[in-house]
Every structure is written in C-alpha cells, then in structure tokens.
Specification:
Number of helices of chain A: 13
Number of strands of chain A: 5
Shape of chain B: globular
CATH topology of chain A: ABC transporter involved in vitamin B12 uptake, BtuC
Shape of chain A: globular
Organism (chain A): Glycomyces luteolus
Helix content of chain A: over 70%
Oligomer: heterodimer
Number of domains of chain A: 1
CATH superfamily of the largest domain in chain B: P-loop containing nucleotide triphosphate hydrolases
Number of domains of chain B: 3
Radius of gyration of chain B: 25 Å
Distance between the termini of chain A: 33 Å
Pfam families (chain A): BPD_transp_2
CATH architecture of the largest domain in chain B: 3-Layer(aba) Sandwich
Membrane topology (chain A): Multi-pass membrane protein
Strand content of chain A: under 5%
Order of helices and strands of chain A: EHHHHHHEEEHHHHEHHH
CATH class of the largest domain in chain B: Alpha Beta
Subcellular location (chain A): Cell membrane
Radius of gyration of chain A: 21 Å
Structural class of chain B: alpha/beta
Strand content of chain B: 15-25%
Number of helices of chain B: 17
Keywords (chain A): Cell membrane, Membrane, Transmembrane, Transmembrane helix
CATH topology of the largest domain in chain B: Rossmann fold
Largest sheet of chain B: 6 strands, mixed
C-alpha cells in the first residue's frame, strides 16, 4: 500500500482568485464613491447625511425585491413577476383594509402569505414542468398587473387606516438634519433586516449554499444528491415573499395604492443585482453587492434631482450604459478565467 | 469474498424511445470486491449504472440491496441507501470551495448555520486520509480536472458508501493520479466497500478488478473472475467478433502512391500567431497524412488553418493547384474540404435531428436550400451509408442523441462522405469510442484514401496514426517539427523519438 501524497497548489493563487471575484463589486463601490464625491463637488447640501439615508427610504422597496431577485439569479433563474406582484400587493393591502375592512396587520400577513405561495407555485411550475423561468414568471407579470387594475384602475388612499402610519414613523440619528443628523423610518429598518437575513441564509445555511451549487451546475447538484427541487422552488418563494413585502413597504411609504406603480421594477431589480456583481448565469455573487447596486440606481436619480435641469429619463440612459459596461466586464472576467484554466 | 451479495440485479430491462438499452441483464456485486463492467460503447454499461444509482428507473427486473428489494427514483435516494457514484465528467460545482463540494448537502452545522471551520477541518482530514493535500478553502475551479476528479471520489467515499460506483474515473487522470486512485480503491476494498469499476483502459481493469461482467448490445454475455479471463478472450466477448479487425488494415493504401503529381494541398509558411508556428505541409490525392504530437502541441490548430476554421496570418495555401484566398468554412466546403472537428457533440451533430437528417445536412447545404433532395434518393443514400458504416441501430429515423458515441461519429463521417470531398480532415475521430467502431472508422479511412481521397488525420493514439498514415507530421510545442515517411518499419517509438529529440535541440 503506497502512502504517497499528491499535493497540488491552486492553479492561480487564492489571493488572485479572490481578487477576480471582487472586481465587479469593487468597480461598483468605486463608482458609488465617484458619484457621491461628484455630487458633493457640484451641489450644495449634497454632503448632508440625509442624502444617503434618503436612498434607503425611497429605494427600500426596490432593495427588498432586488434581494429576492439575487436568490433567483444566483440559482441561475430570473423572476419577471416581481414588479407586478409588488403593485398587486400594495393594491391588495388597500383593498383589504379600506374596502373590505379587514384589520390591517391581518391584511399584511395575508398579502405576504399570498406572495410567498405565488412564488412556490411558479417555482413548482418551473421545476416540475421544466418551463423556462423567463416565460413562467412572465405569466405573473401580466396576471398580477391585470388583477391590480381589476381591483381598481385609480389610486386608492389608505390614509384613513392608522396602521399604515407605522412605516414612516422615524428615528433620528445625531439630531435634526440641519444639525448634521439624519433620520430613517421604520420601513428602512425592515429593508435592512431583509438584507441581513438574506446574507445569513445565503452564506451560512444549507439552503443558501444549495442556491449557489445549483447556479454553478444544476446537473451536478442533482447528482451530488442535493435537494434541487426544494431549493429551486424555494428561491422563487423567497422572491415572491420579497415582492409582496416590497408592496407592503410601498403601502407604508405612500399610504396609497397606484395600479400602475412599479411598472418595470423587475428590470430595475435585475439591473441592480447585475451591477452589484452577481453573474446572470448564476452561481456567483453576493447580496451585499445588490445593496450597492440599488444605491447606484438611487444615487443616480438623486444626482439628477439635485441638478434640476435634467429629465429623469437620464437616469435610465445612464443605467443602460452602466449595465452594458458591467455585463461586458463579467464576460471579460469569465473568459480570462477560462483561459487561465486551460 | 463468498459473502452474500450486497447488490443483486436480475432481469433488468430498460427501454428508451425505440431502443432497448438493457435486455434482461443480471449483475451481482459482493462486499469488498472490485467488479469491472465491460463492454463496447452502447453496450449498456452506463444505463446499467444509472439504473442502479436511481438516475433511470428500470422497466422490468429487480434490484436487491442487502437482500431487500429496492427501487430508487433519484440519485439522492440511492445515495441515502449507501450507493455513491463518481462519474466520468466531474460532477461537482466548481464555483464553490473544495470543502463545500466535499460536504454539500451534509455540512457540519451549529444550530441552523453551517460551521465553516469544522467543515474545513473535516475536509482536510478526509483528503489527508486519501493521500491528497489541497487548500480546501480555495474554489474547486482553481484545481486541475484530475484533482477535481479525486475530490469527487473523496466525496463519494466519505458518504459511508457500501457501494461505490466509478464510471470512467481515470479517463482524465495522469499516471501518478491513477496510482493514487487505485491505491484508494484497494484500501476501500480492504474495508469491505464493494466497487463497480468502468474503464476503457484494460490495463487498469486487469490491475485492479477481481471480477468482470461483460455486456454486449444491452445483453449480458457473462461474468468471470478476472484471473480466469485473458485479455484476448475478453475483447472477443466484448466485440462478439472472432478476430479483431484492427490488424487487418495493413496499409493496402501505401501501394497507390502517386508521387509526381501536384499535391492537392500545399501549405507554405502557413501559420497563426499564438496558435501554430508557420509550417509547410503537402497532402497528395489518395494519401493519408497523420498528425502526431502531445495534447496541446498544435495538432488541431494546424488543421484548422487548412480547414478554414481559423484565419492564417502568414504564409499561403494552395488547394487543387489554385491559391486559396478568403478562406472560411463555407468556401472550404465549396472547394471540397470536409472538416470533422474534435468535439462532435458541440461542433458537429444536432442531437434532436434524426440519423438521416444529420447525414443529409452538408449535402443539402452544398446544394442550397432551394433544391431539396428527392426523398427516394435521400433514403437510398442514407440506407447505403448506414450499411456501409455499420451504424447501429440501423434506423434512419432515430434521433442522433440516442446513439452511442461511436455510432454518432459514424453519422458525422457519413455526412461528409455524402458530399464526396476531395480532402477529408478528421480531428480525433476515434476518441472515446469503442474498439469495434474504431476499427470500422479506421477501415473506412483506408478505403477512402484507396479511392483517391486525401485525408488529414489527427489522433492522440500513436498506434492509430502509425497504422493509417502514409506520412506523419510530428508536432511539438505548436511547431511542426518533422514530416516522416511511413515505411513498413514505422513504429510509434520512432515518433516518440522524434518528439523527444527535437525537444532536446532547443
């Protein structure tokens, strides 16, 4: 019996490998810093802490759906239904509490449960019937926009219901804004909690690592005996839950339901996830990157608002260019990775 | 080893759309034995294994595990019952770390959370045990395929497997790595693990296995103790042919040398930066020119320039007496150059189309889409080639993906032969296919060249190159270093000597 030991050092140093992994997110953070410094240099009051805090107020719902989208994209899928599910959830909150008179906390729980169930259902369709996620979730995009408009084709106000005041109740940090402090409403903390829970789930649980494994190679994950069905359906349930939670946050933020709200929000979320360094092909990325991606989108809009003279469509134009740049960066990195390996 | 069998499969039958992949196969595995399953490609080895591991469910037959009847519906279920598998392709996820791959799905946990420190420690210990030393925190993708394969084996071993199935585990390993693997196998056998070993390498099979089960065309041929079955008898059982055809191809073609004619292909200083240094190479009508060299020596790159698949950035190429300009696969095909690339799955065949449709593709393309081929003519041609190449099953309407590797290769060859090219370029046409199909293809190459076709032939197997070629171009480090005339006394050693000698000069 030989007892020889075979030693192999990684083909690339792990340091290098680690760095490659962090290039996209590094680029995103650098971009954020440049945008922020640019804002400070050009606009008065841009250095107020409330500018940053404001991102987590206005873009809290987007952050929440983007976190759900991160799960889906990491697993190698896509979820186009989140914008519609979100609008539907806000509308359902309004309908249940204003028209049907159901108690608001119960309505909220119902809406969240419904979003999760929808995710489970569409995940099951994708997995068991082997339907392209793009097509399966497109069903949700149409279905829920239609249902939302069916409930009401005009805005529904929720101001009369006390419960919806809770979300914007705020906490001050470091005094008043004019004294250099900032404030955050409760709904921002909900979004932060979602990010933290998602981070822990993705990095420290079997379910989370399973998501990465399936994104790496579904076939391998299956042959390794991982619970592929459960995990794949699970990611869509997470995304459905996040979409309905984002709808609830929107209800808190605006205290009204607009049937045409969040058209295209699914695409904003996908853009934020990609700019945050998650590979569209799945298997690589981080939820904290998604936070950075959402901040890029938010900061871009803030810059345009500060400028005052530019149309808000410029945010989309810039976002399109950024997205292209990041997708190309991903391809270049992936290709150089392949080259080194052979 | 006379214990009760741990696995007993009886009368296993499995049908795929129209193909009976397994027909009443019995298989018995005893604790602590290493049992080789032998057969040509398409004999049903892989299907048998997949039935045992829960990837496929059998249409008939019984499986007893430890005396109890079982039927697995997923690989996970088989794994839970103690049957682990290592496949030919590394089935791990290379975006995760080595440790995570070893423990995916069964990570040590603290409460609901994965305990990464304990996982890395256990991973290290597990690999030490087997005799490999890796950085377990590094992503799997940073290691060679061979090492990834050993990690896959370590994973399978650690799942407390009662039965370990190794499906072509050594095909991507070098000699030292094979030695480590066989060592691990012996150790496991001594501990009572039963192993099923599938390999094309007869040498390894004889070195490691205790017993063999031979399959042919989905049927059981028999079971023997390895010591009682000499190699030539084994091959006879696998092929079901008395003599192995390989030896009969003696170079009949060498006789028809036409020396003074202008060569069909004349490459002068042809090269491409970063892939192959400029080279001169002639190919005459009716001649087989083999390209020999190690993996990565530039064999494929050389022929891709001639085939028009890559653009040369220096030198010139003449074909049939005329200078070739603006060379690309379309114009090449119009000139009468047929190129069968190395990777038949991704670069050649359309899996969902039928045998007939795949064969006819190039011919249709050369006629243009508007002039369809009459059905009767098509059927006749297809039937002719199925017979000529001995494609099995001989069903022109079967989707190509249901054919074994060797038969797929034959379909691809038939496609190019249908357009009657002047130059046929074959890149590794016999890789990964069984002995019988290999012999058929070699015979075919010899026949084609006897009919006046020029053939450029790349193969990693020096034996094959030596046997078939009139001349042999030898490559090393992306440079064509010599063109050897293949005389009657040509041997593989001479080629190896050439490669080594030229290496020494630098």
């Amino acid at each position: 019996m030989t007892t020889e030991t075979l030693t192999e050092r990684p083909a690339r140093s792990t340091l290098f490998d680690g760095l490659t992994k962090y290039i996209p997110i590094g680029a995103t953070v650098a971009l954020l810093i440049v945008m922020y410094l640019g804002g400070i240099a050009n606009f008065k009051n841009f250095d107020s802490a409330q500018v940053i805090a404001g991102l987590f107020i206005d873009y809290a719902p987007l952050l929440v759906i983007a976190v759900g989208m991160t799960f889906v994209i990491l697993s190698g899928g896509i979820d186009l239904s989140v914008g519609s599910v979100m609008a539907f959830s806000t509308m359902a909150c309004a309908w249940l509490t204003v028209d049907a008179g159901i108690s608001a906390p119960l309505a909220m729980v119902l809406v969240l449960a419904f979003g999760t169930l929808w995710g489970l259902l569409i995940g099951a369709v994708i997995h068991y019937f082997n339907v392209q996620p793009f097509i399966a979730t497109l069903v949700g995009l149409f279905l829920f926009r239609g249902l939302t408009l069916q409930i009401s084709d005009t805005d529904v106000s929720m101001r009369e219901v006390d419960f919806w005041q809770w979300g914007m109740t705020h906490v001050e940090f470091g005094g008043k804004v004019r004294d250099g402090g900032f404030w955050l409403p409760y709904l921002s903390f909900v979004a932060f909690a979602v990010v933290i829970v998602a981070f822990v789930i993705l990095h420290y649980t079997r379910f989370g690592r399973g998501v990465y494994a399936i994104g790496g190679s579904e076939q391998s994950a299956l042959l390794m005996g991982l619970p592929v069905a459960r995990t794949k359906i699970g990611v869509y349930a997470v995304s459905g839950f996040c979409a309905s939670l984002a709808g609830v946050l929107a209800a808190f933020a605006t205290k009204s339901a607009n049937p045409l709200a969040n058209v295209g929000a699914e695409l904003d979320a996908i853009a934020a996830v990609v700019i945050g360094g998650t590979l569209l092909t799945g298997g690589a990325g981080f939820v904290l990157g998604t936070v950075a991606g959402v901040m890029v989108w938010g900061l871009l809009n803030t810059l345009i608002a500060f400028h005052g003279g530019l149309s808000s469509w410029w945010a989309r134009i810039v976002m399109g260019v950024l997205l292209l740049a990041f997708i190309l960066l991903q391809r270049v990195l992936a290709r150089s990775g392949e080259k080194r390996r052979t | 080893m006379s214990d009760d069998p741990i696995v007993q499969m009886t009368g296993i039958r499995k049908d795929f759309t129209g193909v009976r992949a397994l027909d009443g196969v019995d298989f018995t595995l005893r604790p602590g034995e290493i049992h080789a399953v032998m057969g040509e490609n398409g004999a049903g080895k892989s299907t048998l294994i997949k039935v045992l591991t829960g990837v496929h469910t059998p249409d008939a037959g019984d499986i007893l595990l430890d005396g109890k009847s079982v039927r697995f519906h997923s690989p996970g279920a088989a794994q839970a019952a103690g049957i682990s598998t290592v496949y030919q392709e590394v089935n791990l996820t290379d975006n995760l770390s080595v440790a995570e791959n070893l423990f995916a799905g069964r990570e040590p946990r603290l409460g609901p959370f994965i305990n990464f420190r304990a996982m890395r420690r256990k991973a290290k210990a597990l690999l030490d045990d087997i005799g490999i030393d890796l950085n377990v925190a590094a992503p799997l993708s940073s290691y060679s395929i061979a090492m990834q394969q050993l990690v896959a084996i370590a994973r399978a071993v650690d799942i407390e497997a009662k039965v370990l199935i190794l499906d072509e585990p050594t095909s991507s390993l070098d000699r030292d790595e094979v030695a480590v693997l066989l060592g691990v196998m012996r150790r496991l056998a001594a501990n009572g693990t039963a192993m099923v070993f599938i390999s094309h390498f007869l040498e390894q099979v004889y070195e490691i296995s205790d017993r063999m089960t031979v399959l042919r065309n989905g049927k059981l041929v028999g079971e023997w103790a390895t010591a009682d079955l000499p190699e030539n008898e084994l091959i006879g059982h696998m092929l079901g042919r008395e003599a192995v055809v390989l030896e009969q191809i003696e170079r009949a073609a060498a006789a028809h040398h036409v020396a003074d004619e202008t060569p069909l292909v004349q490459a002068v200083g042809l090269g491409r930066k970063g892939s192959i240094a400029p080279y001169d190479l002639d190919v005459r009508r009716g001649e087989v020119v083999g390209l020999a060299g190690l993996l990565g020596s530039g064999r494929t790159e050389t022929i891709r320039l001639i085939a028009g698949a890559d653009r040369a950035d220096s030198g010139s190429l003449s074909f049939d007496g005329a200078k070739v300009g603006g060379h690309n696969p379309r114009t090449a095909s119009a000139r009468g150059i047929a190129y069968c690339p190395e990777n038949r799955k991704t670069e050649g065949l359309v899996g969902d189309l039928t045998v007939a449709e795949n064969m006819i593709l190039a011919m249709q393309a050369s006629r243009g889409w508007a002039r369809s081929i009459p059905v009767a003519r098509r059927d006749k041609l297809v039937a002719e080639f199925i017979e000529k190449l001995d494609i099995r099953p001989a069903n022109p309407d079967m989707p190509v993906k249901n054919l074994s590797g060797g038969n797929q290769q034959k379909v691809l060859l038939a496609r190019w032969m249908l357009i009657e090219p002047k130059l046929l370029i074959l890149d590794e046409p016999t890789r990964g296919i069984d002995v019988g199909a290999k012999a058929d293809i070699q015979k075919l190459v010899a026949e084609l060249s006897a009919d006046g076709m020029a053939v450029l032939f790349v193969s990693a197997e020096l034996d094959e190159v030596t046997r078939l070629s009139d001349r042999i171009a030898v490559l090393r480090d992306r440079d064509l270093i010599a063109v050897l005339e293949s005389e009657a006394d040509m041997t593989t050693e001479k080629i190896v000597d050439t490669i080594v000698a030229k290496g020494g000069e630098r």
